[in-house]
Structure formats: structure tokens, C-alpha cells
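So, who can interpret the following?
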Amino acid sequence: MTETIKTIRERRTVRQYLDRPVPDEFLVQILEALQWSPSWANTQCWEVVIVRDITLRERLQVAVGAANPAYRALLEAPLVLALCGTQGRAGFYKGARTTKFGDWFMFDLGIATQSICLAAHSLGLGTVIIGLFDHDKAAQILQVPSGVELAALIPLGYPARVPPAPKRRTPEEFTHQDRF
């Protein structure tokens, strides 16, 4: 098994973190992994807000809500990456939408998110991808400008607990030959 496949297999959603800072050089490596992520026509529509400030993270926690299983992670992790996407860039050519699905930024941000999470895991760090929250409220807290959408919040830090692997479908269960 290659190191890449091993990293993909072993990465987990981490919701509990140790009180230990993330070294700056690790954050640089994670952002470099994002830098090299593929995107629609190399548009690189992502923008990242690195949130260390505890007061801002407390305000983001309110936007996430206590019912979200990742609620505590926003304060336990030493930092949160707020992943945003510039609209009207990915999936567009000369200002016109070119795909059936319109703006492609969420697809590109999905790839970017995987790059962040896999790079973090390879460095011994944990992440949880938070997508269920009041996006408008969180964007206002982080002063995200018009034309840019906040898509996900990603707490990042050293895991206090790594959960076991969830059951996964086998390739035979989700692949189809020649036709669906």
C-alpha cells in the first residue's frame, strides 16, 4: 500500500483536541498542500481565514450551534481554518457559466478540503470539516467580502482521541461497468 493510500485510509474526523499549539511550519505545509490542489482551469478560487483568536472562535461556535457534534472542537483546537471560495471564477469562461452545475467553486473547495485534511493527518494532526452552521453569520464574524462564500470551518490540532474507522461501502457496492 502506498503512503498516499495509507494516509487516505487512516484519516479520521477528529472532534477532540489536545491543548497544544500547531507549529507554524506545519501550517505552512498544510497551506502548501492546498496551494497545489487541482482546480477548474487552475482558477484557485479558494481563500482561507486562519482563526486563532479565541473570541472569534467563541463567536463562530455560536454560529455553529451546540447541537453540532463539532461544537466543542472550535474551542478545543488551537486554530480553525475558514475555507472560502470566490464566486464566478471556477466553472466560468469569459464570465459565462460553462457547466451544467453552474459555479464550480464547491467542487474545487471539496478538493481543497481533502488536501488540507490529508496533509494535516500526515503531520499527526486532526481535522473535522464543519459544513452545518449559519454561513452568513459566520461570514459576517470573519468579515468575508461580497462575492466570496464561506463554505466550511475546519478545526485543526493534535487529536485527543481518534475514533475508529466507520463502516465503508466496498468498491463492488458503488461501481458500475459501462452503464449504471
Q: What stands out?
A: Residues 80 and 141 are 13 Å apart (CA to CA). The two ends are 29 Å apart (CA to CA). The mean pLDDT is 96. DSSP finds seven helices and six strands in the chain.
